[in-house]
Amino acid sequence: MAKILLLEPVGGIAGDMFLGAALDLGLDRTALDGALATLGVPGFRLTATRAESGGVTGTHVDVRVEEERSRARHLPEILARVEGSGLSDRSRATARAVFERIGRAEARVHGVALEDVHFHEVGALDSIIDVCGAAAAMEILGWPRVLCAPPELGQGFVATAHGRLPVPPPAVLEILKGIPVRPGGPPGEAVTPTGAALLAELAQVADPASFPAFAPERIGYGVGTARWPDRPNVLRMTLGEEAVGGGLFVLEANLDDCPGQLVARAIEAALAAGALDAWAAPLTMKKGRPGLLVGALASGDRRDAVARVLLDETTTLGVRFHAVDRIELDRELVPVATPYGEVRVKVARRGGATVGAHPEYEDCLTRAREHGVPVKEVLAAAAASFRAGR
Predict the structure, then answer these.
(1) Same domain flag for 238 and 252
(2) pTM across the whole model
(3) Are 273 and 221 within 8 A, CB to CB?
(4) Which stretches of the chain score pLDDT less than 70?
(5) What is the rounded distance in angstroms from the CA atom of residue 372 to the CA atom of residue 340?
(6) Cβ count within 10 A of residue 97
(7) Which residues pair with residue 255 across a beta bridge?
(8) Is residue 94 exposed (0-12), middle (13-18) or buried (19+ Cβ within 10 Å)?
(9) Do 174 and 254 have their domain in common?
């Protein structure tokens, strides 16, 4: 079963709040400390204490480092520290992507080249701990699927190294381009650049109505430093298992580099893996390139198996899926006698009344081969036999 990590930025989201929520969830502190130790940050200390905000108790994380925190750093220096660490490949890639996303946003907002961006708040060593700690936490948790409702970004003004800026700061909006957000919220900066980049890199941000049902197993609250008058300043993190035992799912993948033979094999393999139906359809993709949409319909308990088949048998890098409903007719396979042998006819009924009847093609093909006649003759004979017997 798939694991889900649901993020709820009740008060907001920042790197330290993510870490605090993960530790409050029950993250293995020893494993986290071991991962962070490989960063080679001199004399840092990560403290996790119980804290309360707006009546909600959780974990507040504070990172203290001996090295001077105010020194500006450039992106290559930060990435070198990440790349030189002992984090897993996926954790390093995630941390690198977070800092690169922040760097691109800062470069665009301030009109400078990426290599010339000075990282102030986000470049401080404690933020390196926050970002790499979040990536390490995901590794320890087994990289669950992360979901988050559109966050409120806050309002008012905030003091930064670039001066007094409106909330949300321009870099935060730049980081979150293309991602659903909600304006307004608590006074002050509810979503920091680090929090925004973590959401952008880790989470599917969407209307909660589109999220799958899941069974909560562990819940944690990361408590922020600011205090809001109308809500707890917490990030709630819930880890659970997706409830996929029932229901139906449509799985899809867009292909623009996959030979037709592999698509045909993928359809065949998806059906063998338990898909109720599988198909391919032409489509026009970005830059006007022709492509194919390969899809399948599967029950909840076969969804992941069918997804694995589509990943294994095609060139796609990912398979999307969504829950669907359907209205079904009652159906029954009725054997009928023909001059060529027995053939099954699929009969569809609604309310006891027959609304359709179609001979099974594979049965007709087998009989046609046995008798050396066209398949259409066997199909016609089976249909006539069914009508005569009604």
Answers:
(1) no
(2) 0.68
(3) no
(4) 1, 66-72, 116-124, 161-162, 244-246
(5) 10
(6) 16
(7) 292
(8) buried
(9) no
